[in-house]
Amino acid sequence: MPELRIGVLAVQGDFAAHIEMLRQLGAEVSEVRVPADLDNLDGLVIPGGESTTITMGIESAGLEAAIRAHHQARRPILGTCAGMIVCDDVHMGLIDATATRNAFGRQLQSFEVDLRLEGTGEEPLRAVFIRAPWIERCGPGVEVLAEHSGHPVAIREGTVLATAFHPELTDDPRVHALFMAMTTTAHERAGEEAKS
After folding, report:
1. Residues with catalytic annotation?
2. d(CA 192, CA 196)
3. How far apart are CA 77 and CA 86, in angstroms?
4. Which of 37, 87, 131, 152 could make a disulfide contact with 32, Cβ separation 3.0–4.6 Å?
């Protein structure tokens, strides 16, 4: 299997933990700060942090067009916590879903819970929620992978995977492995299309 080249948006938020997790899974990982950093990437992670600050960072670095081009080329994107908000239809419109900020409460209401996440096996996944959003509305093409308190907290549409929680803050690599599997599939598809 070819080594996957994954970029992690590094304008704000906990990008270092994502980088470490992806490297442990065998990816070649780089920080994304300017548009050229997206060149030749197989996948992109938009991490947690503060969604307004991340959005402003994307704008000030001129990254929006490059992220959209990455998405339009059907190269996968993983958005976690604030990254889920950045991907939603109110912000970058990369996924047909609407997120509600701080839906589970502010910092003091942060919590951990075991979730059953579709596509990651039978064993529950420990999920860390910090000022977490939830998904208020899903379009018909959006697959709900996990719910908590009756609200979607992990979704997928096409090549975009989004979680309301922080998978990089546990030792469980299954969310990143699911994203890597999506990226491998997209990489192989692109290779086949290039040959034909």
Report:
1. 81, 166, 168
2. 6
3. 11
4. 37
Contact 194, 186 (CB under 8 A): no
Tokens representing 120?
């990651």
Report the SS3 class of residue 126.
strand
Distances (CA, A) of 138 to 134, 143, 153, 187: 11, 8, 11, 27
99 within 8 A of 134, measured Cβ to Cβ:
yes
Q: Does the model's pTM come out above 0.85?
A: yes
List of E strands, the chain: 5-9, 28-32, 43-46, 77-80, 97-100, 111-115, 125-129, 134-138, 143-148, 151-157, 160-163
**What percent of the chain has pLDDT above 90?**
83
